[in-house]
Specification:
This protein is an alpha+beta fold. The protein is built from 4 helices and 6 strands.
Length: about 120
């Protein structure tokens, strides 16, 4: 069974092979050794932030085939889309390939490489 972490790693590798900047975002809070708390991204923040050509950015939430968006994730994505950002729920690397196609940043060769990945649609 493919985990969300496996899917995230595969998608991040795909985006980096395309020469894109991709950031893994974590939400919540972390307690530091000194007893202080470090606030991370707000709850519901998508897993990945991608810098696309032409000054655009996109947000990717990675979910397994059975994974479901929480209410706070759905609301965050709706807010981003309302601001004109591109948001994707990716259940496979092929979802990202299709998304990149929409941004005219994809080649047939890249699709061939992804289709041979163990994580498929």
């Amino acid at each position: 069974m493919i985990t969300e972490s496996d899917l995230q790693r595969e998608i991040m590798a795909l985006l980096r092979r395309r020469g894109l900047v991709v950031l893994r975002l974590n939400s919540g809070r972390v307690k530091l050794d000194a007893g202080r708390w470090l606030n991370l991204c707000p709850p519901g923040t998508p897993d990945l932030l991608v810098v696309l050509p032409g000054g655009a950015s996109g947000w990717i939430e990675c979910k397994t085939a059975a994974g479901k968006l929480s209410a706070v994730q759905a609301e965050f994505q709706s807010d981003l889309a309302g601001l004109g950002h591109s948001v994707l729920v990716a259940r496979s690397p092929l979802d990202v390939v299709d998304w990149l196609d929409q941004h005219n940043h994809q080649t047939n060769r890249e699709r061939e490489v992804i289709c041979s990945s163990p994580i498929r649609r």
